Amino acid sequence: FEWAWQHPNSSHRLLTPPLRQPREQPISFALRLLPRLLRAPPWSRLPLRIRWLRPPGHALELAPPPHVVEEKGAGLPRLKRKKGRSQRVEEGVRGCGLCGKVETTPLLRCPRPLCSMAAHPPCLARLFLAPEPRELLPLGGACPGCHAHLLWGDLIRHFLGEAEPEEEWTELDDVIMPSSAPT
After folding, report:
1. How many folded domains does the chain comprise?
2. What is the pTM of this model?
3. Are 115 and 107 in contact (CB under 8 A)?
4. How far apart are CA 148 and CA 49, in angstroms?
5. Handedness of CA 78, 79, 84, 87 (dihedral sign)
6. What is the span of the domain harbouring residue 64?
7. Are 144 and 119 in contact (CB under 8 A)?
8. Does residue 25 form part of some domain?
9. Which residues, 6+ apart, have CB-to-CB distance to 57 below 8 Å?
10. Same domain? 120 vs 61
11. Where is the Structure-specific endonuclease subunit SLX1 C-terminal domain (predicted)?
């Protein structure tokens, strides 16, 4: 991604890379190019995050895809990987909420505290990919338990224990949407 961003004319990922305008600053050109790269394969379906250390003074010419989360600030330092909520053994959960099978495969869990949805990653991926049967990687979908919109990347981060405290959901009515999503 970085190489394609730095060499847009040499990369085969952009079919028609934009031309740098006369007197356009390199950073302005890079910011104009960024959303186009995020929408190009192979990055168009990856759960990427844009973390702005200093947000640009104006909005991007083209918004990033809705599943790409935009954040501001340096963020919290990651010292150690903590054990995720989905990796703990909980009583009362016997198997996948979608297929009902009890397997040794760890379950993905909805990050909302009052939702008890737990499902095998392949089962949840099939549900999320139902509207897009030709795709391999889901972007997100509605939680089968609480019907909140969940991003696939956030579920995986939560499962791996990489969720930062501000990513945790505190109330049932909270819905975390990417900042580029329409409201």
Report:
1. 2
2. 0.62
3. no
4. 20
5. positive
6. 1-72
7. yes
8. yes
9. none
10. no
11. 96-156
DSSP assignment of the chain: -HHHHH-TTT-SS-SSPPPPPTT--HHHHHHHHHHHHHTSTTGGGS--EEEESS--SS--SSPPPTTSEEEES------SPPPPGGGS--TT--S-TTT----SSPPEE-SSTT---EE-HHHHHHHHHTT-TT-SS--EEE-TTT--EEEHHHHHHHHHT---GGGS--STT-----TTS--
* The predicted structure's pLDDT at residue 176: 44
pLDDT at 92: 47
Confirm whether 48 is domain-assigned: yes
> Can you tell me the distance from the alpha carbon of 118 to that of 50, in angstroms, rounded to the nearest whole number?
28
What is the pLDDT at residue 87? 45
Q: Residue 183 class from Cβ within 10 Å (0-12 exposed, 13-18 middle, 19+ buried)?
A: exposed
Residue 4 falls inside a structural domain: yes
- Asked if residue 57 belongs to a domain, the reply is yes
Residues 67 and 1 in one domain: yes
